Amino acid sequence: MPTRQGYYMWDSFAAGVALSSMRHGETGGVNEFAELEYMNITVVTSNEPYGARDGSNPFFDGRATPKFGLQEGGVHSGHVQTGIRDAFCLVPGGNRSRRCEDGYTKELSGPEAVRVYVATRAKPNADKNSSLNREFFKSFLEVLNLPKNAGRFNISTQFPHYREILYKPDFRNVSRGKPVIFDIDMSPGDFVSLIYLLKEPREVIDLKAVLVSGNGWANIASIDIVYDVLHMMGRDDVLVGLGNTTSLGNPTLGCKNSYAIPHGSGGFIDSDTLYGLARSLPRSPRRYMSENLDHPERQQPHAYDVWQSIRKQLGPGEKIAVLTSGPLTNLANISLSDIDASSVIERVYVVGGHIRDSGHDKGNVFTVPSNRYAEFNMFLDPLAAKTILESSLNITLIPLTVQRKVASFEGILAALEQHTQHTPESKFVRGLISLLQKLQRKQKLYDHMDIFLGEVLGAVYMVQGSNLEPSVKVKPASIVANTTESTDGQIFARRMSANQLKILYNLNNGIYYNHLAKSLANNKQSAVVGSFEEQKAIWSRPQKQFMANIAKDMK
């Protein structure tokens, strides 16, 4: 029915067709928006060759007579897809499931089909002079603009003093610290790390940009949460760039290993709303913008464009520290597109990876049982990991082993509780961590929640370094990439590897917890607007005095 640009209209079009049929009669009446006809259809539940027995079809396998009276040799009697990585369904030499048709709708004759009234074509607009090419589009816009049952509020009418304000620090007469780019995939630990970096003195850390992986732990539209955290902390000056939605070396819609991220259970859906806590953050005027070919200036900035912008801002001899806490897709794409990128990168701190050099500790890719020794950030884009970790960049690795040493709910919550002084950001972090702990205790599907706690170590170690009393070793390493799901993303310490990684193996846990808690509780560089409730109160009264106070606090 609609063109490629009109996919978003499908649901409303279906509603329009249904309402028209209700008004004019299911049969015999003329539908205003679609041509309808009776068809015999079924929903495909198996794949050719039909009648084959391989143990995948519960309607036929092991039964004397098929369930529900289904036909032997019919469209329901073949192989049933057993999962997204079902080998039967994969095209030879490819990574995606393309052979299987489970869930397709197919026209069929015989007893397995059902007679259904089907909308086969959207009716064109009767008005040939209209710019709208479908009759439904005209009706849709007319109904939306009817005064009757119109909405009572939008955000500017609900709040009489609503204003879109960007909060930016006054950097005049301020000595700015090391330029930092933070590359994340929007897992819960990433947001704790982001808040921590925004709390550290600007004379030490100068956060320039946040890059977001499009193939990581949350939907790309969740970038709004990044904007909201920056807005809360008065850092709307920090650029935000969105990376590719596919892993390195894969075509569009070819995310090779993203199937490993669960839906729910701490993955998608949960992370998309930061477990429901995103709504409590103040709302930033900056929002996610999808691709807009007509107005490219309005679309979401790309990670590479943000990198180029930051690079141009560097002074003579100035270099950038990069902290990654997700798949290495963004950094790999930058290094491949900008051949001189390494000349302005002082060091890369990589949160992730699991070194198979001794012991029998397993990785954390819990959704792929066959891969026992990979870590999620490496597994989600193994080729990008290989590109970066086996490059000439100066790399410090914060692997899974040392992350686990500080992944204690009790340790971090106890440190936060020791401080009688609390800031809006420390309260938010404590609420998030307490929620993750509660989910882990009560729900088996959330047993892995502590994996997000270790991610924060990367940010703290980048800032504090030797103050944490670390144990660091330099070792060569190689990464397995683009082989099979059972080995992808695994890291081996090998003498023959040319690269040398600085690997963090240990630290003083007590110093780590206390420093993190103290930083979050510090009143300096605290939240400008602490919550959405506070923001609503601001929008409900004149803002002259409030803005004067903000200007004073941000100097």
From TrEMBL:
<comment type="similarity">
    <text>Belongs to the IUNH family.</text>
</comment>
<feature type="domain" description="Inosine/uridine-preferring nucleoside hydrolase">
    <location>
        <begin position="180"/>
        <end position="496"/>
    </location>
</feature>
<dbReference type="GO" id="GO:0016799">
    <property type="term" value="F:hydrolase activity, hydrolyzing N-glycosyl compounds"/>
</dbReference>
<dbReference type="Pfam" id="PF01156">
    <property type="entry name" value="IU_nuc_hydro"/>
</dbReference>
<dbReference type="InterPro" id="IPR036452">
    <property type="entry name" value="Ribo_hydro-like"/>
</dbReference>
<dbReference type="InterPro" id="IPR001910">
    <property type="entry name" value="Inosine/uridine_hydrolase_dom"/>
</dbReference>
<protein>
    <recommendedName>
        <fullName>Inosine/uridine-preferring nucleoside hydrolase domain-containing protein</fullName>
    </recommendedName>
</protein>
